[in-house]
Amino acid sequence: MGEDRPAHEATSEAVALWRALAADNPAHQPNLAAALTNLGNRLAALGEDRPAHEATSEAITLWRALAADNPAHQPNLAAALDNLGNNLCDLGEHDNEFRRRLEALKLYEMSAERDADLHGADYERAVAKLQTEYVRHGQEEQAAGLGLPPQRRDTSERKGPPERRARQDGSRP
User: Fold this and answer.
1) What does the alpha-carbon distance between residue 65 and residue 22 come to, in Å, rounded to a whole number?
2) Is residue 94, in this structure, part of any structural domain at all?
3) What is the dihedral sign for C-alpha 79, 80, 85, 90?
4) Closest CA to 63 of 45, 44, 76, 82
5) Residue 42 within any structural domain of the chain
């Protein structure tokens, strides 16, 4: 956690700079959205769940508008939605978590349909991750319904109370 505080400070500064640039020139909105996504990840790593949720939600708002104009932004929106799923899981809001993860999965699927070489692996990882979360929450039927074999994971790898555990499954930097 010692490295997380300086990373958070640098990311907060980047958000402030990109916010000012995006206010003057909308062409900088993807950079602001990316910085907000990173800020959400930094805050989550520090255990600051509500601020992480707020930063990630703001990033999603920007990514939605960008993806509506250009489908090339759909994978970024999907990644931010998956991060929001992590935030919601940490907050114990599992119904919302699964809605966001399913939305992310659909976006990854559409991206993979457009370019399987570029996005196929992202789609497969999203399926596996959603299956893992379903299984972890006792929803094996939903996991099996996603098509690929469920990824069973020993939940003991996540240490600490759910609202403070550090993700060890690659979902957070």
Assistant:
1) 14
2) yes
3) positive
4) 76
5) yes
- Structural domain contains residue 169: no
Closest to 152 (Cα-Cα) out of 163, 162, 139, 161: 139
What pLDDT shows up at residue 158?
38
Residue whose pair of structure tokens reads 């809605």 in the numeric block: 99
- Global pTM reads 0.80
Count the neighbouring beta carbons within 10 Å of the beta carbon of residue 115: 11
Closest C-alpha to 104, from 119, 89, 120, 126: 126
* Tokens describing residue 33: 């959205």
Which CATH number characterizes residue 31's domain? 1.25.40.10
pLDDT tens for 51-87 read: 999 999 999 999 999 999 999 999 999 999 999 999 9
Task: Count CA within 13 A, CB hemisphere, residue 156.
Answer: 1
CA atoms of 39 and 36, how far apart (whole Å): 5
